[in-house]
Amino acid sequence: MSGRGDPLLAGVDFGTTHIRALVFAPDGTLVAEGGAPTPIDHPRPGWAQHDPEALWRCAATALKQATGRLDDPRAIAGLAVASVGEAGVPLDADDRPTHPVIAWYDTRAQAECDWLTATLGADRVAAVTGCAPAPIFGLCKLLWLKRNEPDAYRRTVRWLNVADFLAWRLCGVAATDFSLAARTLAVDLGRMCWADDLVRGVGIDPALFQPLAANGTRLGTVTPAAAVATGLPEHCVVGVGGHDHIVGALAAGAWQTGTLLNSLGTAEAVLLALDRPVAEPALSRNGYVQGAMMLDTPHYYLAAASFTCGASADWLHAVVGEDLPYETLIAEAAAVPAGSHGVHFLPTLRVGNPPHPDPTARGAFIGLFPEAGRDVLYRAVLEALAYESRQILDGMLEAADVPPIDRLRAIGGLSRNRLLIEIKATVFERPITVVEMAESTSLGAAILGGLAAGVYPDIDTALDGLDVGEHTVAPDPAMAPGYDRRYGEIYCRLHGAAVGLHQAIERIESEV
Q1: What is the pTM of this model?
Q2: Among residues 300, 113, 304, 285, which one has the least CA distance to residue 189?
Q3: pLDDT (tens digit, 9 = 90+) per residue, 161-180?
Q4: Omega before 233 within 30 of 0, i.e. cis
């Protein structure tokens, strides 16, 4: 409960599976929290989407829970929202949604992505935006809307990334930041502005995108209607938030050049802080992306996603029994020798990850035998997640202009799985510092809300005053050589063979 008289700050984290609302003291102490499952619909196989009004109701419910646990909700001075990156809300002239939010991982826009690539060229798009075309990006989803739901597109006058939409529902002012703009495939990363010519080149009106603003910019104060729905005070300032992994990196102290952040949630982000964008076409061709956060100056990053990191672990947990405590599953897997008795797992349950961004990739277990129980399978999953992350990292470090890695920090719910972190540190052959504040994304959003409200004079003061706690997990030198051989001689070869196999499966299934 709050009772210290300090101003409080709220951060909303819209995630793949949950919407979280947390309230913090300015030093990062967690004061109150609320949450709700992220509502999701699957109208047909392979599609996933959200009802925008349901998203707002769940976010408001999460905030209402958090504010209801405070002695004095009027102490909340500032708030910002972080969200997944490739999901947007199309609105009409009367501010009504024209279509459901296409989930960030939904790839229904593959045909539109292919057409965009043929029209503009992948290297040209990457040179401007820092990202090669992929069906999950906002511009491809707008093209899908235009081609497949022409009436909805005709009525659409603006596109709000999900974090922007929730902030707009709170205060009535619409804007976006550069980290979310980078996920639309419509921003000029070098010039730090919208890439109007590129957008017009595929027949989309650039006016659909919202004004760009620095993270932590003041948008406005909470409207009376939003105050009733959330329990927030009307004087609470709403600031510009950002992309969840990027906002989490801010709170985790991962913005020094050469710092690698491993953000472990339903999806995983591997993010390397840069002092400038990297001009290396091979990176974008292999699925790596670049973007920026704007604070006092631009902070650039090179990143890659493993789309089903936590989802792989959750999937297996559901298969072996959701009532089984995670702690039991982890303890059982910890007793299995490194290498999981020769069982290997491919964690590509949706699409291939960089540096092999194959949209036809699927997951698989290899090397199963009758005695392989849930302990063996779970350890194989964790080892695969570590191998997959190393493959992403190795692909990054092949680029000539990428700086050396000085430190590696981990955040997110799955970073609390100590066995996974121990395996990762050994596979990486690098120590990993785990930020113990599990809700780094919400805290990062709260910090941006504090900047907007003037609680902090600048970002350095905000970060210097945080006490998030951390501990470092070292590699196990006895296990490192074995993991290195399994990674290089088995996993990488298995990964390459599986890509061709999955493509063959797709071809045959389409013909029968």
Answers
A1: 0.85
A2: 300
A3: 999 999 999 999 999 999 99
A4: no
